[in-house]
Design brief:
The structure holds 2 protein chains of 2 kinds.
Chain A (H helix, E strand, L loop, with lengths): L2 E6 H11 L4 E4 L6 H12 L6 E4 L3 H11 L5 E5 L1 H6 L1 H9 L5 E6 L10 H4 L7 E4 L3 H16 L7 E6 L7 E6 L2 H7 L14 H12 L7 H28 L8 E4 L6 E5 L1 H16 L4 E6 L1 E3 L3 H7 L5 E6 L10 H10 L7 E6 L9 H15 L8 E3 L1
Parallel strand pairs in A: 2-3, 2-4, 4-5, 5-7, 6-7, 10-11, 10-13, 13-14, 14-15
Antiparallel strand pairs in A: 1-8, 6-12, 9-11
Chain B lengths: L27 H13 L3 E5 L4 H4 L6 E3 L6 H14 L6 E7 H6 L2 H9 L4 E7 L2 E2 L5 E2 L14 E2 L2 E2 L8 H6 L5 E6 L3 H12 L4 E7 L3 H4 L6 H10 L5 E5 L2 E6 L7 H6 L9 H21 L6
Parallel strand pairs in B: 1-2, 1-3, 3-4, 4-10, 9-10
Antiparallel strand pairs in B: 5-6, 7-8, 9-11, 11-12
Helix pairs in contact in B: 1-7, 3-5
Classes of the chains: A alpha/beta, B alpha/beta.
Chain lengths: ~400, ~300
């Protein structure tokens, strides 16, 4: 039977690792991720988790060792901000070897301790799939689903599931913990993804040749990786749907969540806890008769391009909230991705960008309501400026 | 407990390495690879990082070419733990790692894996520089050696610093086995590999592998140069089993280092004073080794 417990987001992440029956965990402290690996250490100490728990000397080694362990057993690691930057180099290797490692990232700015998305955005092109969460329950559920998606033979790519530091990591809320038997029925045992044993030497050496040899087809590694990430769109939807059947919870269609989007003229687009706050803003505005909804991006990689093209059919304006900056490019990274998705539709909606929540700057309901009002004005054909603003 | 030299005529004929590779002529690293594969045989999964390894990596056992120069210790940890977890303790996790990936960029991971006493065999083939990128100095380079980043000129006498005492540093982690070896003494080297093969925990062997390309000598003399380094005390052969030191080959009298250094182009510029300085260091270290022989490493 499932049970409820009031817990912080980091504990929900630890429960996800436990319920997924991870067998290798590499650990290194960094605020605000640290308590994840502490909870896991406690769970191993008490016998709740049966796993090798290796306290590494830095995040680079956390990533490198969890990568090679993932050739053989289900593996997990977690980090934040600068720790993720330190993992960057082996993260490329993990996708190169197509190892379905799952990692939790608790957002921390790359310039300071408070949250923004610059840590994961700096890993955008490593080939990792990335899933954002709005609350602690979502962290737990997303963690479990991540293993299933990453390990699917159509995908076989590593996956990050992520949530905002402090706002989720250290904030308590009631979380339903699914029963182990239910998770076991949902998530099959780990299958070794690549041949590494001595008796598989022919296949193992062939694989390494394919990975490394410039004579095989230099672009194949990247082409295959790209295809796998694109395949993940369907797999994510399937797994999200299956999760709903098993546990009664789902997160939009797995790629995006459209909140209050019936009969609207415009939408706010947001990720993570800002999306969660934006739901309240949308509720309040709709009570006042304002026709605005919310699109919460759940899957940042793969990016839900087709979803935005469909939404362009009903939204005349999109106000994209970016908890990130792409220095030297006008507008944030989500803004750029959304506009890229919209280029091929016949009637493109107006788009606005709001840089918000950088380095933990608070994003309040009132702030979001103001952004929504501006977006609505754009939807009704009014000239609004600037198109890109620092909220 | 100690290693026992292997009699070469009694070795199994079976090889776990293909006959040709793309290494330079006279590559001593190739000899290390052959010895390691011969002793480890079927039971090995090999870790490789950036080094000359891909050139002599014609070993037929599975390998993971991780492009993580600094990551050998961590990557081997992942393999060792995971193989153990699924009941495959029969697989030996072996790294054939260059001196850069061991002593410089890989040192943090090496130290951490040694501290945790991970079940792995780390073989450092030591050619005293970053030879695969064209011979840049590493902290394994002998003092005064000319390398492509420590050239000789009016304002430079070659490498400024003495070598890092790597094997001793690893031994100070209290691991079950550390040793030095040389391609010129295959009986000794393979005996050490044979011993280390079945020890559980962290094992480390640093093998002297002279590089004709980087050290600038005739490729036919790789083994000769390696041998003279041992005979002169530039490369003493010893091991520490559970922290107990034993010199595995004791020349009756050390040959002067001058000739050995002068036979290598990288020391062509060296002055008598500089030779004396290296000779002094070699003598001091050798005396200290003799004092410690048969007793604790530290």
């Amino acid at each position: 039977m499932a049970k409820f417990e009031v817990m912080v987001g980091n504990k929900a992440v630890a429960y996800a690792a436990k319920l997924a029956r991870v067998r290798y965990v590499s650990a290194f402290p960094i605020t605000p991720q640290t308590t994840i690996v502490q909870y896991i250490a406690d769970m191993i100490a008490s016998g709740e988790i049966d796993a090798d728990y290796v306290t590494m000397e830095g995040e680079l080694s956390c990533q490198s060792s969890a990568m090679t362990a993932a050739t053989t057993v289900r593996s997990f690691t977690a980090t934040s901000g600068p720790g993720l930057l330190y993992m960057h180099h082996p993260m490329h290797m993990t996708t190169w070897a197509r190892l379905p490692l799952v990692m939790a990232v608790v957002h921390r700015s790359t310039k300071g301790m408070q949250p923004d998305q610059m840590d994961t955005m700096s890993q955008r092109d490593t080939g990792w799939l990335m899933w954002e969460c709005q609350n602690s329950q979502e962290l737990l559920d997303t963690g479990i689903m991540s293993f299933k998606i990453a390990e699917d033979p159509r995908v076989r790519l590593p996956m990050i599931f992520m949530g905002d530091g402090y706002i989720l990591s250290y904030t308590s809320e009631p979380v339903e913990i699914p029963a182990q038997e239910e998770v076991d029925a949902f998530l099959p045992p780990y299958r070794r993804p690549i041949p590494m044993f001595p008796e598989e030497k022919e296949e193992a050496m062939k694989l390494m040749m394919e990975m490394w040899s410039p004579y095989v087809d230099p672009q194949k590694v990247w082409r295959d990786q790209q295809q796998a990430a694109m395949n993940a769109k369907e797999v994510i939807k399937e797994v999200n749907h299956e999760f709903e059947k098993e546990f009664g919870r789902s997160y939009g269609n797995g790629l995006i969540e459209e909140y209050g989007c019936e009969d609207v003229d415009a939408v706010l687009v947001a990720m993570g806890t800002i999306a969660s706050t934006a739901k309240t803003a949308v509720d309040q505005l709709q009570r006042d008769g304002k026709r605005i909804g919310l699109v919460a991006i759940k899957s940042f990689k793969p990016f839900p391009e087709e979803e935005f093209q469909r939404i362009a059919g009903y939204a005349k304006a999109m106000g994209v909230i970016d908890r990130n900056v792409s220095t030297g490019t006008r507008g944030g990274i989500t803004f750029t991705e959304v506009r890229h998705a919209l280029y091929d539709v016949d009637e493109r909606p107006a788009t606005l960008c709001f840089h918000a929540g950088m380095r933990g700057k608070e994003v309040r309901v009132e702030d979001l309501k103001r952004m929504a009002e501006k977006t609505l004005k754009a939807a009704y054909g009014e000239k609004v400026s600037p198109q890109v603003e620092w909220a | 407990m100690m290693s026992k030299p292997v009699t070469l005529t009694r070795l199994d004929e079976k090889e776990f390495i293909t006959p040709a590779n793309s290494a330079c002529q006279g590559c001593a690293g190739s000899i290390v690879a052959r010895m390691v594969s011969k002793v480890m045989g079927e039971s090995m999964v090999r870790q490789e990082v950036a080094c000359c390894g891909p050139a002599f990596g014609n070993i037929t056992q599975p390998a993971f070419y991780g492009e993580i120069f600094e990551g050998a210790g961590a990557m081997m940890t992942g393999f060792a733990r995971a193989f153990n977890r699924v009941g495959r303790d029969d697989i030996r996790v072996v790294g054939i790692i260059g001196d850069g990936g061991t002593i410089d960029i890989g040192f943090q991971g090496l130290s951490a894996a040694a501290e945790r006493n991970e079940d792995m065999l780390w073989i450092c083939y030591d050619n005293e520089a970053y030879m695969n990128t064209g011979g840049q100095r590493s902290s394994a380079t002998t003092k005064y050696a000319a390398t492509t980043t420590t050239p000789i000129g009016e304002y430079s006498r070659g490498k400024k610093e003495p070598r890092k005492p790597l094997t001793i540093l690893v031994g100070a982690h209290r691991v079950p086995y550390v040793a030095t070896a040389s391609v010129a003494y295959p009986e000794d080297c393979m005996g050490k590999l044979e011993y280390a093969k079945d020890v559980k925990g962290f094992r480390f062997i640093q093998v002297s592998a002279p590089c004709p390309t980087g050290w600038r000598f005739d490729p036919r003399y790789s083994v000769k140069v390696a041998k003279e380094m041992v005979l002169s005390g530039l490369w003493p052969l010893y091991e520490a089993v559970e922290g107990s030191l034993r010199i595995t080959y004791k020349p009756k009298e050390l040959k002067p280092v001058k000739e050995v250094l002068k036979s290598q182009g990288r020391f062509r510029h060296i002055t008598d004073d500089e030779v004396d300085e290296i000779q002094e260091e070699v003598n001091t270290f050798w005396v200290r080794l003799l004092e410690k022989d048969g007793g604790p490493l530290f």
